[in-house]
UniProtKB/TrEMBL annotation:
GO terms for molecular function: transmembrane transporter activity. InterPro entries: ABC_transp_permease. This is ABC transporter permease. It comes from Micromonospora tulbaghiae. Residues 1-22 are annotated as: Disordered. PANTHER family: ABC TRANSPORTER PERMEASE PROTEIN YPHD-RELATED-RELATED, RIBOSE IMPORT PERMEASE PROTEIN RBSC. Keywords: Cell membrane, Membrane, Transmembrane, Transmembrane helix. GO terms for cellular component: plasma membrane. It is a multi-pass membrane protein. The chain crosses the membrane at residues 44-62, 82-115, 127-148, 154-174, 195-216, 247-266, 301-320.
Length: 362
C-alpha cells in the first residue's frame, strides 16, 4: 500500500538553481562639459573668442592706436561706457525673451522716462525726484505691456509695437518736440564720475547684471521664468500663475528701461523724444547672440552681457576705422540672422544628439 501511495505522489523535480540576476550596466553619464550644463559655458567661450577676433582685427587695421597702452585702456573704458546703457536694457529684455515674450518698446520707454524726468516740474524736486520719476514711468509702462499681453491676450509683438508708437508720441507731446536740458549736477555727474579709474556707469551695469544673474539663477522667480517660457501650459498645471508672472517680467523690463533712462540722460545732459532710437534692436540682438532662445525657455545673463560688449566693440571698431554707420547696421543685421540660424540648428539637434549619445554608451 505504501508503495502505491508513494507512486501516486508527483515526482519532485530536482532543485532549481537560482538564476543569476542579469547585471545591466547603468548607462554612462555624460560629463558636465558634454551635457546640458556645459552648453552655456561653451557658448560663452565662443563669445569670448569672438571678442578676441575683434581685438585682433582692430590691431591689424589700426596698429598705430593699439600700440599705445594708455589708448587701449581708455578705449576699453569707452567700450564699456558705450555698452552700459544698452546692457541694462538687455538684462530686462533677456528676462522677457526667456519668459516667452518680446518687448519692442524698450527704446521708447527709455525716451519717455528720460523726457518725463527732465521736465521743469520734475527737476524742481531734485535728483531724487528725477530718478524716482524715471523708475516709476518705466515700471508703469512695463506693467501696461504685461497686462496687454497676459490679460488682454495680445501677441507680445503687437502689444509692444503699439506701445513703441504710443510712448514715442507721448514723449514728443511732453517735450513739445524739443530737447530738454538737465540742469541737475548730481544727475549729470553720474556719467562723468570715476571710481578707482572706472566710470560709475560701468559699476551700475555690473550691479544690474549681478542682480539679474542672481534673480535668474538663484531664485524661484528665475526658475518660474524658464518654466513659463519653456512650456506655459505645463507651468500653469504646476501651479504657476502664468499671467501674473508675465506682468512681472514686463514690469522688470520697464524698470531696467527707467534705470537706463537716468544713465542716458546723464550722458547727454538732456533728453528728447528721439533718444534711445533702435535700442530694442540692440537689446534683442545682444540677447540672441548671448544664446537666449527667441522661443523662450533658455538664456543667460552673462551671455547677453557678452553680446552687448561684442556689439559695442563692433561699433567702436567701425568708428576708429572711419566706417559709416550704414555699414555697421548691415553687419549687425547679418550677425543677428546668423545667430538665429545657428540657434535653430543647435537647439533642433541638441536633444537628438544627447539621446543618441546615451543610447550608444548604454
Amino acid at each position: 500500500m505504501s508503495d502505491v501511495r508513494e507512486s501516486s505522489l508527483p515526482a519532485q523535480s530536482p532543485p532549481v538553481e537560482r538564476a543569476e540576476t542579469a547585471k545591466v550596466d547603468a548607462p554612462a553619464k555624460l560629463s558636465w562639459w558634454r551635457g546640458d550644463g556645459g552648453e552655456g559655458a561653451k557658448r560663452n567661450l565662443g563669445l569670448l573668442a569672438t571678442l578676441v577676433v575683434l581685438v585682433v582685427i582692430g590691431i591689424l587695421t589700426r596698429p598705430d592706436l593699439y600700440g599705445d597702452p594708455n589708448w587701449v585702456w581708455g578705449n576699453t573704458l569707452t567700450i564699456l561706457k558705450l555698452a552700459s546703457v544698452v546692457g541694462v536694457v538687455t538684462v530686462g529684455m533677456t528676462f522677457v525673451i526667456i519668459g516667452g515674450g518680446i518687448d519692442l518698446s524698450v527704446g521708447a520707454i527709455v525716451a519717455l522716462a528720460g523726457v518725463w524726468c527732465t521736465t521743469v516740474a520734475t527737476q524742481s524736486y531734485g535728483a531724487g525726484g528725477m530718478i524716482f520719476t524715471a523708475l516709476t514711468v518705466g515700471l508703469a509702462v512695463g506693467v501696461v505691456n504685461g497686462l496687454l499681453v497676459s490679460y488682454g491676450r495680445l501677441v507680445p509683438f503687437i502689444a509692444t509695437l503699439a506701445m513703441l508708437v504710443a510712448a514715442r508720441g507721448l514723449a514728443a507731446e511732453i517735450s513739445d518736440k524739443q530737447t530738454q536740458v538737465s540742469g541737475n549736477t548730481f544727475i549729470n555727474g553720474i556719467a562723468s564720475t570715476n571710481v578707482l579709474g572706472i566710470p560709475l556707469l560701468v559699476y551700475i551695469l555690473v550691479a544690474v547684471v549681478a542682480a539679474g544673474w542672481v534673480l535668474l539663477n538663484r531664485t524661484t522667480f528665475g526658475r518660474r521664468t524658464v518654466a513659463v517660457g519653456g512650456n506655459p501650459e505645463a507651468a500653469r498645471l504646476a501651479g504657476i500663475n502664468v499671467r501674473r508672472h508675465t506682468v512681472l517680467l514686463y514690469a522688470l523690463s520697464g524698470l531696467c528701461c527707467g534705470i537706463a533712462a537716468v544713465m542716458l540722460t546723464a550722458q547727454a545732459t538732456s533728453a528728447q523724444a528721439a533718444m534711445a532710437n533702435l535700442y530694442e534692436l540692440d537689446a534683442i540682438a545682444a540677447a540672441i547672440i548671448g544664446g537666449t532662445l527667441l522661443s523662450g525657455g533658455r538664456g543667460t545673463i552673462i551671455g547677453s552681457l557678452l553680446g552687448v560688449i561684442i556689439f559695442s566693440t563692433i561699433t567702436n571698431l567701425f568708428a576708429i576705422n572711419n566706417l559709416s554707420a550704414e555699414a555697421q547696421n548691415m553687419v549687425k543685421g547679418g550677425i543677428i540672422v546668423a545667430a538665429v540660424l545657428v540657434q535653430q540648428v543647435q537647439f533642433g539637434s541638441l536633444t537628438q544628439f544627447l539621446a543618441r549619445n546615451r543610447a550608444t554608451t548604454t
